[in-house]
Structure formats: structure tokens, C-alpha cells
């Protein structure tokens, strides 16, 4: 499947929306431009700090907000194995990103635990250097894999879980997967010291608002941190409407009414989740308000798609084909220069300029670009 998506007409330049780019132009520019010392910063002064790597575009869930069943059905053209970056290619690119300043790598997808022998990739990445090496999973296979991932060098996991109510959870994942098995996965990750385990709950109005308070209550004493995520207009297939978003402020109000909260400082500059502590000192939650309070100004994330395209925004419509450079024999230096040149050109700030019109752009799917 070719994922250099045809560009829908974009609004006027200068809005900071993700735009198409010619990789050739960056490679040529990088070859003649003397390299600036130190890590690259983009046009808005944001450094390159995080890399999300999608290791597969396939998933064993069909979450209604991410991979709706009617689109991602039997005939959906998932990537063929030969199109995926190999572990060696991923590790090489990751090391070059590390040289460009990346200190946090998250493996994602699709469902990353579906990629065979993922532990081997984790081992290769762990050898790169002093990295926060994490993974986001739906938890279905985590009970089996937590210890081997930890042994391979993974530092933490984030588990997606949209409800503790079994019927609601089965409706959200749309493959009738029971919540108990995800809870087993969370327990296994905790026992394997992949901690702190974070729990991501996407809230979609009309589906799981009722689950917000029980979820907060359950995890507040268990040592895991729940982050409530506003439903976003990622990709082009989830039929997103602003009316389906439950704003983070409403989520905080609902929890606060039951278990009083107090705002807490960010752990570090640019933290995506806004933190809230319980007033009685027992635990904390996070809210990720990517729709109602965009945090583009502190976004330091690049994304490497399953087939090796570099995206500089989750809401991008096209990416830069690093696999072509890798398979075309580029040196590490040429690759590093191309990545730095692409990052320096970056001006994306989609969430700050989102409208119902931009939501209709042909953005790449989250399962492919990596959530
Ligand atoms: N399969 C893995 C999982 O379920 O965690 C990793 C990939 S998934 C795309 C990564 C994260 O993106 C999950 O926490 C998921 O809930 C979140 N996500 C997917 N679609 C979303 C949407 N439309 N709005 C907000 N978050 C979304």
C-alpha cells in the first residue's frame, strides 16, 4: 500500500499545517549546508527529542475511534512484510535520530506486540545509549510478553484501556475482547517493573463517559496513572465530530466532584498530559487535551511510519521516505543531515489551527503513523 497520500487542498501557507515535502530537496540542501552544531530545532524553536516508531500497521482490535471495522475490514490493504522496515533498518535509523538529540523512543503501531520477536528490536534499541525506551499497547498480549520485554531492555509501558466495564470495553474495541485480560497484562507489566505503567483512556462522547469516574477510582490506589485523552480527528476514517469530544475540563470536573483534585506541576517542560493530584494525597491523573488546549508549541515528537516514512506531525498528510535513502545506500551522515534538514523546516501546529474543515483533510491513519 502506498502511503504517500494524495494531498487534499491545503489552506493558505503560514497556518503551520503539515505539508508535503520533497526528500530529494532536503538531501540536496543537507549536502551543501554546513551542519549547525548541536541538536536541530525547528522553525518554532522546538528541539527534536522524541521518536515514535510504528512497527506494524496491523492491530488485533478495531477501536471505534481509531480503526473502524467497516474501513479496516478483511480487504484493507495492510502493508506487505517486505515493505516494513526490518529491525536492523529501524535500529540504524533510531541510532541516527539519537545522534540528532532524540532521548525518548516509543514503539507503537498498530499493535506493536503483534510484530514477531519484538524483544529482539528492543534489545537492539536498548544498546543505542541512554534512552527512555517505552511502548504503547492495547495489552491483549502483554501478560505473555511483559517479562521478556523488560529483560530485553524496555523501560516502561503505556496500556490503552477505555473502560473497566466489560460490555463497554468490548463495544469500544469492537472485537469482543474482555477487559479482564488487559487487566492481567497491566498486572504483569507492573510485576515486571515496566513502571510507572500508564493507562490511556480515550473518551468518546456517547460511548464511555460513564467509565471515567470508575476508572479514576480503580487506578488511584493501584500505582498506575490514568490519562484521559480527548478524542482526536486523527486519520481520515474515524468520522470525527467536535460534538463527540468530551473536553478535558469536563473530565476533570466529573472526577473532582467525586474525588477532589488539585492541579499539579508538569514533571518536565513539554509534558503532554496536564497533571492533577487527589487532594487526599492518594494518586494522580493526567488529561491530554489535544483538541481543546493544543500543545503544539511544545511538541518535540517525530514519527517513523511502519514503512519508514518520517512524519513531523501526527496530523500530517504526507511524509519523507527515509527507507528509500536507507535502501538506496545513503551513509549515516547523509541520513543524519537529511533528518536535521527536515526538522529545521518543520512548522507544524495542526491542533492550534484545527477546524471542521481541516478535520476532513486526508491525514495518514494513526495505526500506520504510530499513535
Ligand atoms: N495498539 C496500541 C494501543 O492500543 O495502545 C498502540 C497504537 S494506538 C494508535 C496508540 C494510542 O492512540 C492508544 O492509546 C489509542 O487509544 C490512541 N488513539 C487512537 N485513536 C485515537 C483518537 N482518535 N483520539 C485519541 N486517541 C487515539
Write the layout of secondary structure elements.
Layout: H1 23-32, E1 50-54, H2 87-99, E2 104-108, H3 118-126, E3 132-137, H4 142-152, E4 156-160, H5 166-173, H6 179-191, E5 198-203, H7 212-219, E6 225-230, H8 248-258, E7 261-263, E8 274-278, E9 284-288, E10 301-304, E11 309-311, E12 320-321, H9 322-327, H10 332-345, H11 366-369
Parallel strand pairs: 1-2, 1-10, 2-3, 3-4, 4-5, 5-6, 6-9
Antiparallel strand pairs: 7-8, 8-9, 10-11, 11-12
S-adenosylmethionine binds at residues 59, 65-66, 108-109, 111, 136-138, 160, 200, 202, 229, 231-232, 234, 238, 366-367, 371.
Protein architecture, described:
Residues 1-20 have low confidence and may be disordered. This protein has helices at 23-32, 87-99, 118-126, 142-152, 166-173, 179-191, 212-219, 248-258, 322-327, 332-345, 366-369, and strands spanning 50-54, 104-108, 132-137, 156-160, 198-203, 225-230, 261-263, 274-278, 284-288, 301-304, 309-311, 320-321. A twelve-stranded mixed beta sheet has the order 7-8-9-6-5-4-3-2-1-10-11-12. It contains eleven helices and twelve strands. The longest helix has 14 residues, at 332-345. With 371 residues, the chain is of the alpha/beta class. It binds S-adenosylmethionine. The site of S-adenosylmethionine has 20 residues, from strand 3, strand 5 and helix 11.
Amino acid at each position: 500500500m502506498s502511503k504517500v497520500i494524495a494531498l487534499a487542498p491545503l489552506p493558505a501557507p503560514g497556518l503551520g499545517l503539515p505539508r508535503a515535502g520533497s526528500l530529494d530537496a532536503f538531501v540536496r540542501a543537507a549536502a551543501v549546508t554546513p551542519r549547525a552544531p548541536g541538536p536541530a530545532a525547528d522553525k518554532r524553536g522546538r528541539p527534536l527529542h522524541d521518536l515514535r516508531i510504528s512497527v506494524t500497521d496491523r492491530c488485533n482490535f478495531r477501536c471505534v475511534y481509531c480503526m473502524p471495522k467497516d474501513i479496516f475490514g478483511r480487504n484493507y490493504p495492510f502493508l506487505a512484510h517486505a515493505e516494513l522496515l526490518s529491525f536492523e533498518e529501524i535500529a540504524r535509523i533510531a541510532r541516527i535520530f539519537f545522534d540528532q538529540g532524540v532521548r525518548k523512543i516509543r514503539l507503537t503501531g498498530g499493535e506493536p506486540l503483534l510484530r514477531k520477536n519484538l524483544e529482539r528490536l528492543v534489545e537492539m534499541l536498548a544498546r543505542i545509549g541512554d534512552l527512555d525506551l517505552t511502548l504503547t499497547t492495547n495489552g491483549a498480549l502483554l501478560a505473555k510478553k511483559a517479562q521478556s520485554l523488560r529483560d530485553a531492555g524496555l523501560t516502561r509501558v503505556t496500556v490503552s484501556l477505555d473502560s473497566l466495564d466489560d460490555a463497554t470495553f468490548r463495544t469500544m474495541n469492537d472485537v469482543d475482547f474482555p477487559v479482564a485480560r488487559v487487566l492481567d497484562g497491566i498486572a504483569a507489566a507492573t510485576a515486571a517493573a515496566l513502571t510507572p505503567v500508564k493507562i490511556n483512556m480515550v473518551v468518546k462522547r456517547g460511548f464511555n463517559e460513564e467509565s471515567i469516574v470508575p476508572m479514576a477510582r480503580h487506578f488511584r490506589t493501584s500505582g498506575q496513572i490514568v490519562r484521559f485523552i480527548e478524542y482526536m480527528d486523527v486519520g481520515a476514517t474515524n468520522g470525527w465530530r467536535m460534538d463527540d469530544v468530551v473536553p478535558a475540563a469536563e473530565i476533570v470536573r466529573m472526577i473532582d466532584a467525586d474525588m477532589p483534585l488539585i492541579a499539579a506541576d508538569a514533571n518536565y517542560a513539554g509534558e503532554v498530559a496536564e497533571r492533577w493530584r487527589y487532594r487526599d494525597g492518594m494518586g494522580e491523573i493526567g488529561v491530554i487535551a489535544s483538541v481543546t488546549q493544543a500543545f503544539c508549541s511544545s511538541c518535540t515528537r517525530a514519527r517513523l511510519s511502519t514503512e519508514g516514512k518520517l512524519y513531523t506531525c501526527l496530523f500530517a498528510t504526507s511524509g519523507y521516505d527515509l527507507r528509500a535513502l536507507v535502501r538506496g545506500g545513503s551513509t549515516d551522515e547523509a541520513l543524519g543531515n537529511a533528518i536535521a534538514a527536515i526538522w529545521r523546516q518543520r512548522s507544524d501546529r495542526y491542533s492550534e489551527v484545527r477546524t471542521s474543515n481541516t478535520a476532513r483533510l486526508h491525514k495518514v491513519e494513526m495505526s500506520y503513523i504510530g499513535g
